[in-house]
């Protein structure tokens, strides 16, 4: 999931949950956007301190870069608990004005977060997973310019 906080000039503060996949791709996109737009900020909302500890090294490297480069790092729990991922997702929803999610329809945390965001009255924009895999270079950066906005689904 991906969240943005807006002001009168548009979205400037972005919050990533730090999970593998869309969260890290979006965080890396924000880091690239900061080169062109220095007023854009990245917040990494980490559910617990060891979030990436058991991930493959390639994912840990991307995660570390995002955390080390973030303007703000918010850690919701010192250790893993059954509720820390839900707490992170609730934090994301309450801190944002918009949810961007790459959602494949599966019964998982993304589904619950999309539903929670929608029922909380915030706008939700769904990006089809196939759109990310069909981009020209399959790089992990600048997803906002590579995925045509006409296929994003708002509700």
Fraction in beta strands: 15-25%
Task: Compute the number of helices.
Answer: 6
Record the strand order, biggest sheet: 4-3-2-1-5-6-7
Largest sheet: 7 strands, mixed
Name the helicity range.
Answer: 25-40%
Mean pLDDT: 81
Unreliable segments of 5+ consecutive residues: 134-138, 146-155
N/C terminus separation: 15 Å
| Order of helical and strand elements | EEHEHEHEHEHHE
What is the structural class?
alpha/beta
Could you characterize what this model shows?
The protein has helices at residues 22-36, 57-69, 84-95, 109-119, 129-133, 143-146, and strands at residues 2-7, 10-16, 41-46, 72-75, 98-102, 124-127, 153-154. It is built from 6 helices and 7 strands. With 155 residues, the chain is an alpha/beta fold.
Provide tags for this entry.
alpha/beta; globular; 6 helices; 155 residues
What's the short story on this structure?
With 155 residues, this protein is α/β, with parallel strands linked by helices.
Question: How are the SSEs placed, and which strands pair?
Answer:
Elements: E1 2-7, E2 10-16, H1 22-36, E3 41-46, H2 57-69, E4 72-75, H3 84-95, E5 98-102, H4 109-119, E6 124-127, H5 129-133, H6 143-146, E7 153-154
Parallel strand pairs: 2-3, 3-4, 5-6
Antiparallel strand pairs: 1-2, 1-5, 6-7
Helix pairs in contact: 1-2, 3-4
């Amino acid at each position: 999931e991906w969240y943005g906080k807006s002001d009168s000039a548009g979205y400037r503060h972005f919050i990533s949950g730090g999970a593998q996949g869309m969260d890290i791709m979006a965080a890396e996109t924000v880091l690239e956007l900061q080169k062109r737009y220095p007023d854009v900020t990245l917040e990494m909302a980490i559910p617990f301190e060891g979030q990436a500890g058991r991930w493959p090294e390639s994912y840990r490297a991307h995660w570390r870069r995002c955390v080390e480069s973030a303007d703000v790092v918010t850690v919701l729990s010192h250790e893993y608990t059954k509720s820390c991922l839900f707490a992170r997702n609730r934090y994301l929803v309450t801190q944002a004005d918009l949810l961007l999610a790459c959602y494949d329809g599966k019964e998982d945390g993304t589904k619950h977060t999309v539903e929670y965001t929608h029922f909380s009255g915030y706008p939700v924009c769904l990006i089809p997973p196939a759109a990310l895999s069909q981009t020209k270079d399959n790089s992990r950066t600048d997803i906002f310019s590579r995925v045509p906005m006409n296929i994003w689904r708002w509700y």
